[in-house]
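Archive transcription. Copying these from loose printouts into the bound notebook so they stop getting lost. Printout 1 of 2:
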Amino acid sequence: MNIDLSQTTGVCCEACKHDVFIPAFKMRKMSALLSPHGKETMIPMQVFACAKCGHINDDFQTKEE
């Protein structure tokens, strides 16, 4: 797929305006009662953190109910 980057919008850190991000993980814990195998489980959720200050933009986070 060919994408014309001039037709896209850059994304900056909401906190410091830096424009480079690194992969990071937020961890969630699932209780043994909800887990399909009956054991407490850790669930990694990939997000992108600012490479300069570590902030995670709201748009990069999953919405919790």
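Printout 2 of 2:
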Amino acid sequence: MRNLILTLALVCGIFACQAQQQGDWYVGTGDINNVAWTDWAVSPTIGYGVTNNLMIGMSLNQASEEADMDIDFHARYFWKGFFGYLGVDGFSTDGMSIGAGKMFTVRNNIYVDPKVVYNTGEGTTNLTLGFGFKF
């Protein structure tokens, strides 16, 4: 486990981070997360840079095969290479997600953004990973 953490820290340190700019578009996976390695959820997402430090977006989410698709909304505020995250499930504030993370540019406009997110409705904290394209 220690080697895994050190490897992740080294990889994150190698990648250069790029500032978010007004007018940038983000298209990606949203978050890859869940409780088991065999039960991941991938949410397609799109975002737009409203100002140089603020990005808003939405993602499609389906909790299970039987459930209907939900539209989730989120915002990120970038500050000194990191970002604060706020997400809501549809138009409900019952299950807000609050977190922090860092966006890394891997190559050209491909990004990876690990973050720690606390869900107020479920009372759980998760490590999530998103990736996609910025243009």
